[in-house]
Amino acid sequence: MSRLGQRGRKAREEVDIDLVPIMNMFLVLIPFLLMSACFFHLKIINTSVPVLSEATDDGPKKNNIKVTVIVEITKGSIELSAMSDSIENGKLDKFSTRIIKGMEEENTLNQLALSLEVIKKAYPASDTLIIIPNESVIYDTIIQTMDVARYFKGFPLFPNVVLSGKVG
Predict the structure, then answer these.
(1) What is the pLDDT of residues 148-167, one digit of tens each?
(2) How far apart are CA 103 and CA 126, in angstroms?
(3) Rounded to the nearest 5°, which phi and psi values hold at 88?
(4) Which of 55, 110, 128, 137 could be joined to 160 by an S-S link, Cβ 3.0–4.6 Å?
(5) Residue 9 DSSP code
(6) Per-residue pLDDT at 72 exceeds 90
(7) For residue 78, what are the β-bridge partners?
């Protein structure tokens, strides 16, 4: 009977679990996971998408005519053109220009802004500009073009800037 009593005592003895190895593993694992975590910094660029508009049969007045400006950005140049449902293409061809990119990007953007200012003065109701960048154009160039298209020297030009891809 003494053996049965000893077995019962051994079964009732508390066993300490050694948690040090697990704690050491978490001590190394947590900083590693924090260092490898990626945090996203999101920024917003206000753009809109092209929409189809319904043509009206009202006689257009010079002040109410809207012209949509198209800016095609390639690696070596910026091509500017205009289109409208209520104006013939022959009248809009005078606004078509090609700006060759030089060494300084500021000069190119100033030339673009001056061309956009001429269109805005001719058709003040115009508010939409479509930017069509080539695949080789860098992001910064697109953003700078958008900024110049919206405002130039405190003068609002085309507040609705649309990014589009080349069709056709």
Answers:
(1) 999 888 888 898 898 888 76
(2) 31
(3) -70, 150
(4) 128
(5) H
(6) yes
(7) 73, 99
Is the Cβ–Cβ distance between 97 and 104 less than 8 Å?
no
Question: Which residues lie below 8 Å from residue 75, measured CB to CB, with a gap of 6+?
Answer: 101, 134, 136, 137
What is the DSSP track for 12-36? HS------HHHHHHHHHHHHHHHHH
Secondary structure of 103-159 as H, E, C letters? CCHHHHHHHHHHHHHHHHHHCCCCCEEEEEECCCCCHHHHHHHHHHHHEECCEECCC
Show the tokens assigned to 100: 């060759």
DSSP state letter for 48: B
Closest CA to 131 of 69, 75, 77, 43: 69
The residue assigned the tokens 């800037």 is: 161
Least confidently predicted of 42-51, 99-108, 142-151: 42-51
Residue 151 CA to residue 148 CA, distance in Å, equals 5
Exposure string of 71-93, with b = 16+ CB inside 10 Å and e = fewer, is bbbeeeebebbbebeeeeeeebe
Domains of the chain: 2-36 (no CATH), 68-163 (3.30.420.40)
